[in-house]
Amino acid sequence: MRASLIQLVVSDEEPPAERRSRAAALVRAQEGADLVVLPELWPLGGFAYDAWSGGAETLDGPTAEAMSAAAKAAGVWLHAGSIVERDPDGPIYNTSLLFAPDGELAHTYRKIHRFGFDSGEAVVMGAGQEIVTATTELGTLGLATCYDLRFPELFRALLDAGAEMLVIPAAWPERRREHWSLLARARAVEEQAYVLACNTAGTHGGVEQGGHSVVVDPWGKVLAEAGSGEEVLTVDFDPAEVHKARVEFPVHRDRLLGIPAPVQR
Question: Is 40 a catalytic residue?
Fold first, then answer.
């Protein structure tokens, strides 16, 4: 299997429409890959709080339209990162979009854990409520976003839902980049799953981004890691390694906590 992580530079100077066209061209250039991943909130910027309300889109808006066409042109599964989704009946959300190779919007995931404590995303966005996995011919993908990486209980729930690959778009800042690298490897080891974590590069909203998108195998080995600038990180790996790791080192069968109690009859 071949995956390409597109580590975009996101800046305040580039208009969203231009970045959208540039991202679509980069996706189309990945023909031959099986899965392509973009970062979190790349159309507007993960820290561009002032732009979110005015730039929010519906699930059939310009970003979804461009990404659908790009996925179909390249013939790939496309995790198009996330957008600021405007729900006509509710708040705005940080929503990830997964497109099938025919361009169909196959799954969405509204980010559960919102970053910012008492400001930013935590205040202005709604929280997702659903754990999302996607069953594909590549394997079962578990969807999470950026700050979610700090909450192992989400990833254990994704494991229990059948996830074999954890796909994590992010807008993770440079000042906490060591946490990014550490947590990506930890989630891979804990769940014995591949982690494909795609970050942004550049600076927007006054926050320097960490880059260093990474692919980690079920044993915690880093298969490929990007630098700090814009880059397409492409890696070939064997999805069967997940089953192999879980058979050779069957740690999950020793779980005692967090397992539903048997029904008493």
Answer: yes
CATH, residue 166: 3.60.110.10
The encoded tokens of residue 143 equal: 């969807």
Tell me how far CA of residue 9 lies from CA of 13, 120, 133, 200, 253, in angstroms.
11, 21, 28, 6, 42
Question: Measured between alpha carbons, how far apart are the two ends of the chain, in Å?
Answer: 46
Note the pTM of the prediction, 2 decimals: 0.96
Contact 218, 248 (CB under 8 A): no
- Whether residue 259 lies inside any domain: the answer is no
What is d(CA 101, CA 114) in angstroms, rounded to the nearest whole number? 30
Residue 113 maps to a domain = yes
**Which of 57, 85, 111, 231 is flagged as catalytic?**
111
Indicate the number of domains in the chain.
Answer: 1
- Check 57, 85, 146, 231 and give the catalytic one: 146
Angle at 43 between CA 163 and CA 36, to 5 degrees: 40
pLDDT at position 263 is: 44
Neighbours of 58 (CB within 10 A): 14
Our answer to whether residue 198 is catalytic in this structure is: no
Residues 210-258: tens digit of each pLDDT: 999 999 999 999 999 999 999 999 999 999 999 999 999 999 999 998 8
